[in-house]
Model the fold of this input.
Amino acid sequence: MTKFLFSKVIILLLFTTNIQAYRFTSDFLNGFYWQSFPVQMQIFVNENSQGSLLSSLVNQAVNAWESEVGREIYSVPTSYNVGSSFGNNIRWSKNFAAETGFDPSSTLAVTTRRTSGTYIGQVEVVLNAEFPGMLTNSGQILYRTILHELGHVIGLDHSEVSQVVMASSLTSATSLQGDDSLGVNAVVDEALYRQSIGFTSELSSSDEKNSPAACGSVDLGGGDGGGLPNILLSLFLGFILILSPKVLRPTRNFFPDQLT
Ligand SMILES: [Zn+2]
Done:
């Protein structure tokens, strides 16, 4: 327990003193974690024709994250399902606003993590099929989005560093950057430690367990470079996302099993 508290203090020190760094999701900071690795996920599509591209890109992104950690952290079958999603999943939405509450013209995807006891109980990644280029992966936009959302799945929040995969707005980066690598190694190390001691979050029996963490990934159409106005705008919108009650405490109809 002492070691855990020590590691938590270190995490909090890093979190509060070095803003130019990766961040953990609030549920992870509150002691919730994946019970075991790899995290089992499934791919869902609306039509068969969408399956092979999505499956290929998800597995490419999985390999990218895992190569930074040197171990298996996600398990996603190359096969895919057609129809309604369940369990830990990554899926398309053709009706993004109604299903997530986010603006479909500026939001590429939303990841929701629900807790169960002291563990992460379910995660869902909803991809915006209405956003131009997403279904066809034009300019690698779908791949870059998936790479970003898988970071949320494992417990990374938006980094304070710009031009990294876990930045709050989509960057031109098509591969994980140094800060992303530091982040995933830190979150996986901490999760493995909690698993090894059977750590229980102080909040596991409180109402907090019904407050899933969610993150919207926003694209501002800045393209390569961005420029100062775009950077300022992205920080501003990111702040809104972070402060939004819908982001911090999505209502129950935000839960994937209550979506149609
Ligand atoms: Zn995000």
